[in-house]
Design brief:
- The chain has a three-stranded antiparallel sheet with strand order 3-5-4. The chain has a two-stranded antiparallel ribbon with strand order 1-2.
- It has 222 residues and is mainly alpha-helical.
- A hairpin with a 2-residue loop joins strand 1 and strand 2.
- Helix 1 packs across helix 3, helix 4 runs parallel beside helix 7 and helix 7 packs parallel to helix 9.
- The chain has a domain of 51 residues: Multidrug-efflux Transporter Regulator, Chain: A, Domain 2.
- The longest helix is centred in the C-terminal third of the chain and has 29 residues.
- The model has no long low-confidence stretch (mean pLDDT 84).
- It is built from ten helices and five strands.
- The protein starts with a helix and ends in a 15-residue tail after the last helix.
- Helices cover 60% and strands 8% of the residues.
């Protein structure tokens, strides 16, 4: 424990306190010797990083429980399967930097449940750099992360339906493009359709000014 505390740059009594609070897993024991490893050191550094970012110890414990309940990266990404997305590996404190003030246990649990995040040892893996960057930008513009995740859940359902549609077209026609050629064609169709849908929505908003309170009418002459 003294060696672990020294490596982490904290007092031994702090390590004992974290152990008592359940923030640090028990060491491996061989007789009377307790062995701590790199995972314990990584957890201490994560605790220190989150404390610096304003998280409380009880909040960190809740985050750790949500983190430990997450699915493994191999289960979420289906390692070896083709993908256009670039996963991003993050320490928990780095994830907190992306979503300042929004990395609470509820949001973390939702992101893990949706499969946006997965676990790999002491790291968190976000499945898509594009989604990570866009989500962080929306949070910086004032959109709550909970609202982004709720929208993502809805988008996920529509995206799954669209993927099923494109694959069914592929399977129904003998001269349809091979699977590797399906992605760019599907992207082209959906980019064009989404662009036109946004055009239609913006035109409607320009044609329909916001509701104004009706002005009181003058009484009719008696």
């Amino acid at each position: 424990m003294e060696e672990l505390a020294d490596a982490a740059g904290i007092p031994v009594r702090t390590v004992r306190f974290y152990r008592e609070r359940g923030l640090l897993s028990p060491p491996r024991r061989e007789g009377r010797i307790a062995w701590y490893d790199d995972h314990h050191l990584a957890r201490l550094r994560t605790i220190a990083g989150l404390l610096e970012r304003g998280h409380t110890l009880s909040g960190i414990a809740d985050l750790a429980r949500a983190f430990e309940s997450g699915r493994d990266v191999a289960e979420v990404l289906g390692l070896g399967e083709p993908t256009e997305e670039t996963p991003v590996r993050l320490a928990p404190e780095q994830l907190a930097d992306y979503f300042e003030g929004e990395t609470n246990p509820e949001n973390l649990a939702t992101a893990l449940e949706l499969g946006y995040l997965a676990t790999d040892g002491d790291e968190i893996v976000h499945i898509s750099r594009r989604l990570l960057e866009v989500s962080a930008e929306l949070v910086r513009k004032g959109v709550p992360l909970a609202a982004i995740l709720a929208a993502g859940r809805s988008v996920r359902k529509h995206a799954d339906d669209l993927a099923d549609l494109f694959v069914s077209v592929l399977e129904s026609h003998a001269d349809a493009p091979e699977p590797p050629q399906l992605r760019p064609l599907a992207h082209a169709v959906m980019d064009a359709e989404l662009s036109m849908a946004l055009d239609r929505r913006l035109r409607r908003e320009r044609r329909e000014p916001p509701d104004r309170p009706s002005e009181p009418r003058e009484p009719a002459p008696s």
